[in-house]
Design goal:
The protein has helices at residues 15-28, 46-49, 99-114, 131-136; strands at 5-9, 56-62, 65-73, 82-90, 118-123, 140-142, 156-161. By secondary structure, it is an alpha+beta fold. Strands 1-2-3-4-5-7-6 form a 7-stranded mixed β-sheet, with helices on both faces.
Length: 162
């Protein structure tokens, strides 16, 4: 049976489910370490975080159950016309269905609509299943971080012109 997939913008009622998905994913991949969103208090209040001008967060639901999300954010000290792809996490039930790609496309479209020219992201080797997707989506590696995300636990940095 085909599952009903819906992508919409974040609502306050999504905060608890998204924080759980993010933290459980980081635990699953052995990446629940200092310097990551695992310990970031804003992880519990994403709907408030994404009220900032130039930001947007998309939530994916499967059969009306929150199954993950991704967003763009004007991270401090990024180069002009650049935003950051942030908090792309999917519950296990949502993986391997092309949903990550759909979320990234929505984020890139939103970035263009806001006038951004580049989308930057940070990740870590523990989240290895995401890196090939970023490569396929056209992200290229950088030798150092950009901006000031505060996530010192990330040591893979990539960017894409959108």
């Amino acid at each position: 049976m085909e599952q009903s997939i819906n992508i919409r913008t974040i609502q306050p009622a999504d905060d608890k489910a998204l924080a759980t998905i993010i933290r459980e994913t980081l635990e699953e991949f052995g990446a629940a370490k200092p310097g990551t969103v695992y310990y970031d208090e804003t992880t519990d209040h994403l709907s408030a975080v994404f009220q900032k001008k130039g930001s947007m967060y998309f939530v994916v639901t499967l059969e009306d159950i929150v199954a993950g999300g991704a967003g763009i954010y004007p991270t401090e000290n990024l180069p002009p016309a650049t935003c950051e792809l942030v908090k792309l996490y999917l519950a296990p039930v949502a993986r391997g269905k092309g949903i990550g790609r759909l979320l990234m496309q929505k984020c890139e479209e939103a970035a263009r609509n806001f006038g951004y020219e580049n989308v930057y992201l940070e990740t870590m080797p523990e989240l290895r299943i995401a890196v090939p997707m970023y490569e396929k989506m056209g992200y290229r590696y950088l030798s150092q971080s950009m901006g000031n995300s505060g996530h010192t636990g990330c040591d893979i940095w990539m960017v894409k012109k959108v």
